[in-house]
Write a structure and sequence with these properties.
It is built from 7 helices and 13 strands. The chain is of the alpha+beta class. The strands form 4 sheets. A 5-stranded antiparallel β-sheet has the order 5-3-2-1-6, covered by helices on one side. Strands 4, 7, 8 and 9 form a 4-stranded mixed β-sheet that branches. The chain has a two-stranded antiparallel sheet with strand order 10-11.
């Protein structure tokens, strides 16, 4: 995307924030919000700002300036509604996205209170989530619409990222977790012990006259997708296949044994000053192999 679109994105975002009445504190004659002391502001503080639509915006304090009245430079956190694609089902109600590009100067009067932005792990460990607690697990690039990191773990049969606001239940056998709504469990009636469909099918006895083959896999026994284990995806969305280092290696073919012997003979027949590329040797081996008859190939096939 060109720089013009990048600048346009930043301009639209700033205009949206600057239009809020709470940020026009330099024209505001009344007292500051009761219970908030602006003298406690310092660089790195996370603060809240009320917008004209009665919504709350979260920002980080970067700098201070007293010219033309007390001013504070704020770097804004993005909400799911402000990013590309908008709010999705996996976005938490208190989720924010950090960024480093959009910041502007505002009056100290625009700040209405302090907030805390936790990591997702810290947010989950909170005993009591207040209205000033938020969490951030990704950064957002407004100019390109990209997220950092661009790959996050997904869970449940729906294969969506974790949302702390959606109740989940854990299978006692495989340890995978599922959204209650995805497995038809009411959130206020979560059982103390739960077994997923895949585990129930694996442990169920076979029907009379039907013998389960050893080649059946977990996926063949149940159509449900794996949930607990986070899927490692590439940037294209395809699953990355991990090779087993202990897996046995494939045996050599008759052609491999022939190439091993013919390559030495081919290089020995050439003059010492002559050089042969890998492609040239490979082509020569292929031609020589095609000229061999069935009896001439038997010694190599026997190996």
């Amino acid at each position: 995307r060109g720089s013009g679109e990048e600048e346009g994105t930043r301009t639209r975002t700033r205009t949206r924030f600057r239009r809020t009445s709470a940020m026009r504190g330099d024209k505001k004659k009344g007292p500051l919000k009761k219970g908030f002391d602006p003298s406690q502001l310092e660089e790195g503080s996370i603060v809240s700002v009320n917008g004209e639509d009665e919504d709350i915006y979260i920002a980080e304090v970067l700098e201070f300036e007293s010219k033309g009245g007390p001013q504070v430079k704020l770097r804004w956190f993005y909400k799911p509604e402000d990013v590309v694609y908008g709010r999705q089902v996996w976005h938490g109600s208190k989720e924010l996205f950090g960024q480093t590009r959009v910041s502007d100067w505002n009056s100290v009067h625009s700040v209405t209170g302090f907030c805390k932005v936790h990591t997702l792990e810290e947010y989950e460990d909170l005993d009591d989530v207040s209205g000033h607690d938020y969490f951030c697990r990704q950064a957002y690039k407004p100019n390109s619409g990209e997220f950092v990191p661009d790959i996050v773990p997904v869970f449940c049969v729906c294969e969506t990222p974790y949302n702390p606001d959606r109740p989940m239940v854990e299978c006692e056998d495989c340890g995978e977790v599922f959204h209650c709504e995805c497995v038809a469990i009411e959130s206020n009636k979560i059982p103390s012990r739960y077994r997923c469909e895949s585990c129930r099918l694996r442990s169920a006895p076979s029907k009379p006259g039907v013998q389960r083959t050893t080649g059946e896999t977990h996926a063949e026994l149940a159509p449900a997708k794996r949930g607990r284990q986070a899927k490692t995806l590439t940037k294209t969305g395809r699953k990355r296949i991990r090779k087993d280092p202990n897996a046995p290696k494939r045996s050599l073919t008759a052609y491999n044994f022939f190439v091993r012997d013919y390559r030495k003979k081919y290089l020995a027949d050439r003059s010492p000053a002559a050089t042969a590329s890998v492609i040239e040797v490979t082509r020569a081996c292929g031609k020589a192999w095609n000229l061999l008859g069935a009896k001439e190939r038997e010694p190599f096939e026997a190996k």
